Amino acid sequence: MTLPLANYDYKYFCGVSYPDRSLDHDLRRIRKSWEQAQSDRRRDAIYDYLTAVYEIVQAWGVERLAMDRAQRALKLSGLFASDQPVPIAAVIAASMSPGKLDRRLVSKYSRALRLAAACECRAKKLERFIKDRGGLNHCAGRFSRRLGRQSKKS
Questions:
Q1: pLDDT 10s per residue in the chain (154 long)?
Q2: HSE on the CB side for 2, CA within 13 Å?
């Protein structure tokens, strides 16, 4: 028995392209989510933004094009694109205002989302996943320990 393919699976197998215009549109949508999270007073407003980042990178991963698209996202945003960017970090960096780009914040959010990806968390359950593990800081620290890095507090 075969399972039906999700829309992005179908597009990948049928060879539908993802032009820069479409990528830029997606980045603008995520950037708008970032701006809303920054202007919202709710403590949990950041989770809408993080979910948007997580969803797009998960879709790229299914298509096995996350690295390529991460490089393109950085270039479209006028940022330095390394040969091997971390896709989640690239989308976060590309969606923040260049003037407000905080490398530590990018790193923290990226590590928390990479932990969720490593644990195969679904995007719809991302907020609950992070909260159940102690929040963003704990998830980021947990991912660092998973990589074999020691936190400075230890």
A1: 444 444 444 455 545 588 889 999 999 999 999 999 989 888 899 999 999 999 999 999 998 999 999 999 999 988 887 888 999 999 999 998 777 778 999 999 999 999 999 999 999 999 999 999 999 999 999 999 988 765 454 3
A2: 3
CA gap 57, 62 in Å, rounded:
9
Helix/strand/coil (H, E, C) string of the chain?
A: CCCCCCHHHHHHHHCCCCCHHHHHHHHHHHHHHHHHHHHCCCHHHHHHHHHHHHHHHHHHHHCCCHHHHHHHHHHHCCCCCCCCCCHHHHHHHHHCCHHHCCHHHHHHHHHHHHHHHHCCCCHHHHHHHHHHCCCHHHHHHHHHHHCCCCCCCC
d(CA 34, CA 47): 10
For the whole model, what pTM was predicted?
Answer: 0.82
57 and 38 in contact (C-beta within 8 Å)? Answer: no
Please count the other Cβ atoms lying within 10 Å of the Cβ belonging to residue 131.
Answer: 14
Residue with the two structure tokens 């992005």: 8
